[in-house]
TrEMBL record:
One of its GO terms (molecular function) is hydrolase activity. Transmembrane segments: none annotated. It comes from the Bacteria. This is 3-oxoadipate enol-lactonase.
Length: 267
């Protein structure tokens, strides 16, 4: 367990293993615990760095406006704090959004990018987008974190044999600081870097669950805008793929990372 300071905020991160650095960045309202099924497997080959985003987990939760650019700046500060060279980046949901921001702003910092169940913009384009957002916005403001956690658990892990995962998510969600959660949620709305995707030159893997919130077709559309990207769809999975399909996820990610490392060694 380690901390570093950036712009007056103490940020928590964990480190495991040795080798090429690999950054794992969690989703909205979550923490380093998103990656519990990945860390042991990845740390056998990589120097795995797992931060808590500002406002989340064990990091400080300053009462201020948050922004995706600000979250990205925190991660860049962490990379500098640890003297990391080019780094593999894996981001789930909001972690993927932060990854897109970092990759378009400072592409030279990333050795590869893996985006999991995420997108390069959160823009309201269709009436259904507004409805989805209004629903989420009201839910976040009117319900307590515990109630949201239970609803989320049922949505993410609907199967009878996933009771443990449902329970886990409900307990973790209840620990969220509501103010920080809402500030992070607000940071997502209206954000986008889709028009700058051509700046991302590193190899990119987009992983999509077949039952994610946004359809696979939406990922197919933006993958075409990335210079060196491919899409892998994971069957029988929802938004929390690293938790509901850990073996498939880990295998897919390791194959990608190994291919990137082999290619860069050959050059």
């Amino acid at each position: 367990m380690a901390y570093f300071e950036h712009e007056g905020c103490n940020l928590h991160y964990e480190e495991y293993g040795h080798g090429t650095p690999l950054l794992l960045v969690h989703g909205l309202g979550s923490s380093t615990l998103d990656w519990e099924m990945q860390i042991p497997v990845l740390a056998a080959r990589y120097r795995v760095i797992v931060p808590d985003v500002r406002g989340h987990g064990r990091s400080d939760k300053p009462r201020e406006r948050y922004s995706i650019a600000g979250f990205s700046a925190d991660l860049i500060a962490l990379m500098e704090h640890l003297n990391l060279g080019p780094t593999h980046y894996v981001g789930l949901s909001m972690g993927g959004i932060i990854g897109f921001q970092l990759a378009v702003d400072q592409p030279q910092r990333l050795k590869s990018l893996c985006i999991v169940n995420s997108q390069p913009q959160v823009k309201m384009q269709k009436p259904s987008d507004y409805w989805w957002l209004a629903k989420r916005w009201c839910m976040a403001r009117l319900l307590n974190m515990e109630t949201i956690g239970k609803a989320l658990g049922r949505m993410l892990f609907p199967k009878p044999d996933q009771a443990d995962l449902r329970q886990k998510i409900a307990e973790r969600w209840a620990k969220n600081d509501k103010h920080a959660y809402l500030a992070s949620f607000d940071a997502l709305v209206g954000w986008g870097v889709q028009e700058r995707l051509s700046r991302i030159t590193c190899p990119t893997l987009v992983i999509s669950a077949d039952h994610d919130y946004t359809p696979v077709s939406a990922k197919e559309d933006y993958v075409k805008l990335l210079p060196d990207a491919r899409l892998v769809v994971i069957a029988d999975s929802r938004h929390a793929t690293p938790l509901d399909q850990p073996e498939r996820f880990n295998q897919t990610l390791l194959e990608f990372l190994t291919a990137v490392d082999t290619t860069t060694q050959d050059h």
